[in-house]
Amino acid sequence: MSTSSPLIRALLVEDEYLARQEMRYLLKEAHPDVDIIGEAADADTARRLIRELRPDLLLLDISLPGETGFDLLESLDEVPHVVFVTAYDQYATRAFQVSALDYVLKPVHPERLAQALRRVRQTLLPPVLPPAAAAHPIEDDTAAGPPAPPAPPLTPQSQVFIKDGEACYFVRLADIDMFEAVGNYVRVYFGTQSPLHHKSLQQLEDKLPPDLFFRVNRQQILNLTTIERVHAYYKGGLLLEVRGGRRIDVSTRQAVRFKELLSL
């Protein structure tokens, strides 16, 4: 393969050393465009390396010590693309329910890995991806270096992971219509789905792209692209007709900011 070919920067998350070595061998032999930029044997190390290295792809074992691969994904503000690697068939169906790129059952067969990576390439390439962050991959026993730079802000194309009971989803922010506070959690509306997300509305508001989402009242954050009509409402507030037939109140306090934002 030409050295000018774009690389897929992958983080390998697997608690078994021999399994990591086997995956490295399979990738080196047949998939040199997949660059393993780091390895992690547990969720804490994976979380740190995801922050530091910003991989394009996670090759993720579901069964990890302490936390599962699903727990890891749920703890992230933004998740890379994911191919699950698992020894358990019962996780395979769930992997597709969460819209992962693919899953590979252990022991890993070269043909099945190649099939999964074809799907990865179709999703990630083009555009041309940035070169690997380092000449040598970071192992899971690497001592912590200087603090990682702050994560870049989320964008409409950022992907988030939502786990509600046994149901799990990967969703682009651009595809989310609304976040609504339900006690200490948030209900997330996208398509025909409305799972509960285990974060508060305030936590989300501080990280969502402000040019896409707006806090319309104490209970709801709305995707501005879903607005179809705006009406004057009670005591200086506004009433919004949005995609899907919903009607959303904009509080009197927020109506002032809303009008300024949209130059109304």
TrEMBL record:
Modified positions (4-aspartylphosphate) in chain numbering: D61
Biased composition (Pro residues): 146-155
Keyword Phosphoprotein on entry: yes
HTH LytTR-type domain mapped to chain residues: 162-264
The keyword Iron belongs to this UniProt entry's keyword annotation: no
Region (Disordered): 137-157
Keywords attached to this entry: Phosphoprotein, Plasmid
Signal peptide: none
InterPro entries, per database record: CheY-like_superfamily, LytR-like, LytTR_DNA-bd_dom, Sig_transdc_resp-reg_receiver
Entry GO MF terms: DNA binding; phosphorelay response regulator activity
Pfam family, one: LytTR
Domain Response regulatory, residue spans: 9-121
Coiled-coil intervals, chain numbering: none
SUPFAM superfamilies on file: CheY-like
Name used for this protein in its record: Uncharacterized protein
PROSITE patterns, alphabetized: HTH_LYTTR, RESPONSE_REGULATORY
